[in-house]
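Q: Sequence in, structure out?
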Amino acid sequence: MDMARKRWIVVSHNAVEKPVFYHCISRVVDRKLVFGADEKEKFRTFMRMQENFTGCRVVCYCLMCNHIHLLVEVAPLPEGGFSDEELLARLRAIYNEAEVGEVAKELTEARCQGMAKRVAGIHARYTYRMHSLSEFMKTLMQRFTKWFNRTHARSGNLWEDAFKSVIVEDGVAAKTIAAYIDLNPVRAGMVKDPADYRWSSYGEAIGGGARGDGKKARAGLVRALRAHQGGGVDDALWAKDVAREYRLILMAGAVGKLEPRVGGDGTPGPKRKGKGMSAGETAREQAKPGEKPGEISLGRMLRCRVRYFTDGAVIGSRSFVNEAFARARERFGPRRKDGARKLRGSGAAAAGTLWSMRDLKQAIG
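A: Exactly. Output:
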């Protein structure tokens, strides 16, 4: 496991039986509000292209005006690698037909001449960039930066720093982080209903999009909520119960009573002053009878900014976080006996259900 402060990555995906999710965050340099509608649409296009090429799945996302949130599932490479046809299909996601044709010609010649090593070399030229979070994010951010700089006649890095990521356990943790991501525009006061923000997984799933009518977004959310149960992605699960379950979670985290939605054109609602409420403000304004000052429900916690979800390094059950700690024991000092740390402050409503690798009041290790 890579224990860099900004980025924790499970190195050996082939050794992982459970799904591997990452909450990835990146901010624009100087945090300028440079992402308008065109920029968000272009980023989403590049994101989907990279998905098709790399095999990494964006199960949830939200594109804000100066930062992005992605919940990415990184599956292991297929056992035995790819067939030539599968490799070429992946290449078509990001290369033009002429370039793919040249690769196909190379493969055909190598196969005809019985040059197995050459065939393996051609595959390796591209597959090292597949099923890798680092390669997925690096290429996505670089490609978007080139387009943005060319479009806006600028130069230099667009992003504030290298992206940071948090390892997220499947099940409750993945479901919670997905809702937290989709509620970003609600916390920012841009919309009252997350269904009205079209540059998010939920907004796309409900309102559709220019391509696919939201099918890819719905499939991602099904994966976020059901991956722990095993099996693939069944679009019927969305209509059966996932849409309703996820809607209820989002409603609990949104401000005000929201009626069930079946549509939504993705047009942002009126902007509210401010940039969302802190945990203390939310608790004071929404505290229920019998609650102590500062106490909030799990649903209302999602309306707050929860730093653990962006800086906690590993988020999941106590056993999941402790297992991650054990795999990286050498990174920590001898006085630290386990990895799981109880969520406090704005994350306290999830304490005992979700745990973090980082205390956030102390440095790692």
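The two ends are 14 Å apart (CA to CA).
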